[in-house]
Amino acid sequence: MKEFEAGLDGVVIDSQGCRLLGAFYRGGGEGPRPTAVLLHGLPGIEKHLDLAYRLRDLGWNCLTFHFRGSWGSGGAYSITGLVDDTRAAVEWVLRQPSVDPDRLALIGGSTGGTTAFLYGACDSRVRALVGLCPFIEPAAFDFPREMAEEFAGMLTGVSGPDLLAQWQDLESLSGHFHALASRPILLVTGDLDELAPPSHYSDFDASLANVEWVRHPEGDHSFSTCRPWLVQTVTDWLAARLGT
Questions:
Q1: pLDDT tens-digit profile of 153-176?
Q2: How many distinct helices (H) and strands (E) make up the chain?
Q3: Structural domain 3-237, CATH architecture
Q4: What is the dihedral of CA 23, 27, 28, 32, to 10 degrees?
Q5: Which residues neighbour 158 within 8 Å (Cβ) at sequence distance 6 or greater?
Q6: Domain residue spans of the chain
Q7: How far is CA 59 from CA 34, 188, 242, in A?
Q8: Using one digit for the tens of pLDDT, what is the confidence trace for 124-139?
Q9: Residues near 160 by beta carbon (within 8 Å), at least 6 away in sequence
Q10: Mean of all residue pLDDT scores within the chain
Q11: Could you give the angle at the alpha carbon of 108 between the alpha carbons of 187 and 10, nearest 5°?
C-alpha cells in the first residue's frame, strides 16, 4: 500500500469558469487518507485554518479554498454560487490519489456551515458533516445593512444591496432535514454568539436524531476565546467517526 507524505500544496479549482484559489493540506500515512473540505463564511475573515493544521497532524487531508469573488478567487461573489463552488471543490478533492473517497467530511463555519449542510444533503459521498455556528434558518437573521456594506467592500463584484437580496434567497435547511438524517452531524455553537444564539438551533437539534450539539458557554460566532477547545472538539469527533 502506498505511503503518502505530509505537505502543503497551493491549488486552483475551476468552478463554472471561476478560478478558485485554495490550499491542500496533505496528511501523511499508509494508503489513502480521510479528508475534510473546509468552508469559510461570509466574507470569510475567520477561515478556521487551525483545524486544517490539526487534521494534517492526525494524518488527514484538508482542502481549504476561497469562494468565487473572495480573497483573490476569480469571478463575482455570489451567495447563490456557494453550493456550486463547494461541488467543484469536492470533485477536485475526490480526484486526488491520497484521498479515501469513503472517508470524506465537510466542515463549514457560519454561512459556510449552511453551505456544507445544503451541499451534503445532495451528495451521499459526504460521510460526516460539521457546522460551526451555521445559519439553519437564514431568514431568521436580520442582516444589518451596515454589515452587508462592510462585507461587500471585502469582496469582488457585489454590493451591499446585492448581498442582502441574495441572502433572502438562501435556502432554509428545514427542507433538507430528511436528506441529512442518514449521516453523523456535529453542531458546534457558542452561547455568546451575537448572530445566531442557542435558540436558533432548537428545531434543528429536535428534528434530527443524528445531530450531536456541543456548546461553549463563552464562545462567540468565531469562537475567539476558545479556539483550542474548538479544534479538539471537532478533530476528536471526526477521528472517532472516520478514523485517522
A1: 999 999 999 999 999 999 899 899
A2: 8, 10
A3: 3-Layer(aba) Sandwich (3.40)
A4: -110
A5: 69, 76, 77, 78, 152, 166
A6: 3-237
A7: 8, 23, 12
A8: 999 999 999 999 999 8
A9: 145, 148, 149, 151, 152
A10: 96
A11: 150
